[in-house]
Write a structure and sequence with these properties.
two-stranded antiparallel ribbon
């Protein structure tokens, strides 16, 4: 019996291994571009350039005590710039932040002094008032749908008027009375306005609080569900709501975080100087917003970091003190801030385009 043998199909050998073909969508960008796309990298390089510039042009800045003073100035801005930055990442901003600082300090001072109470009672009540201001801003914005510019501008004017009117009504002056001899003052001062020595240099406690808050804010943004909510509502609140993000809670809580920051800075001012001028705080809100923008936060929301505003505040402190140490006219300070702000906006625009480029 004969058997028919079928021809076996020819086997084509596999192609030799070689570089994988990529197109514009899958090509991996260079490491330098990926680093520059981080919101904090640009401001870090800018802060480094400003530091080198003033170390050369202002020799007194090389002293340890001068650097401690710069860090102190930066911390008083940076503590508020952090919650303002988180709010901006969430798509909003707060024009009442500057006067809210003074409101908290006035509340604590007048309540404790006029009622002859322990200053810690005033501190706690001031915290409640500051959180209530943030709660009102967030609630009113969510309920009405008005832009945060209009809502917080109204709050700014209300607080400014209340600060002046109530202080004159209660104390008969535009400033509060000295509370340095009251019960609890020294303990509160140790928390909010004390100093400690490092290598023979006095460092303010606010520097430690500033860096601690920055670490905490970074962890919240990058490692928690709440951080995802903040980015989501800042990017597109309707899309965020559609996937289950609690938009109302997130918006209100961000405004309350700004209230907490205002309370903390207000307590520092009160226990540093023992008294408060009721007309202060106007214009500081722009400094806080500018520090956040220089730190890489976009006014459109949904983008930014907590570390960037740290470097942004540090740049403010360096310029503010560096001009003095260099012996220049301090009137140039605002001009430097304007240049830094415009430069930061241009850098942020380039970073945004780089980050979204395919």
């Amino acid at each position: 019996m004969s058997m028919t043998r079928q021809a076996e199909p020819a086997v084509t050998p596999p192609p030799a291994p070689g570089p994988k073909a990529t197109d514009g969508r899958t090509a991996r960008r260079p490491l330098a571009l990926r680093l520059l796309a981080r919101p904090e990298v640009g401001v870090f390089l800018g802060a480094l350039a400003v530091l080198i510039f003033f170390l050369i042009t202002a020799p007194p800045m090389r002293d340890g005590s001068s650097m401690a003073n710069i860090l102190y100035q930066s911390s008083t801005i940076g503590i508020m710039a952090l919650p303002v930055a988180l709010l901006m990442i969430g798509g909003e901003f707060d024009l009442s932040a500057g006067v809210a600082v003074v409101t908290s300090a006035l509340t604590a001072s007048m309540l404790a002094y006029q009622l002859s109470m322990n200053v810690w009672v005033g501190v706690v009540v001031a915290l409640a008032v500051s959180l209530a201001v943030g709660l009102f801003n967030g609630w009113f914005l969510v309920r009405t749908g008005l832009p945060s510019f209009l809502v917080t501008l109204g709050t700014f004017l209300i607080l400014q008027g209340v600060n002046l009117a109530v202080t004159k009504l209660v104390t008969g002056n535009v400033a509060t009375d000295d509370i340095s001899d009251m019960d609890g003052f020294e303990q509160a001062r140790a928390v909010f306005a004390s100093s400690f020595e490092v290598g023979g240099v006095q460092v303010k406690i606010t520097v430690v609080w500033w860096l601690a808050f920055a670490v905490l804010a970074s962890w919240v943004l990058l490692r928690t569900r709440y951080g995802n909510w903040v980015f989501a509502v800042g990017g597109n609140k309707e899309s965020a709501r559609a996937v289950g993000v609690p938009v109302t809670f997130t918006k209100i809580s961000l405004f309350m975080l700004v209230g907490f920051g205002a309370w903390f800075v207000g307590m520092h001012q009160l226990f540093s100087f023992n008294t408060v001028q009721s007309g202060e705080g106007v214009g500081q809100e722009l400094i806080y917003i500018a520090a956040a923008v220089i730190g890489g936060c976009l006014l459109t929301g949904g983008y930014g970091s907590a570390i960037g505003p740290v470097f942004g505040a540090f740049m403010f402190g360096m310029v503010q003190q560096g001009i003095v140490y260099a012996g220049w006219n301090p009137d140039w300070f605002k001009a430097f801030l304007g240049v830094m702000l415009l430069g930061a906006v241009l850098i942020n625009l380039w970073v945004q385009r780089t980050a979204t480029r395919r």
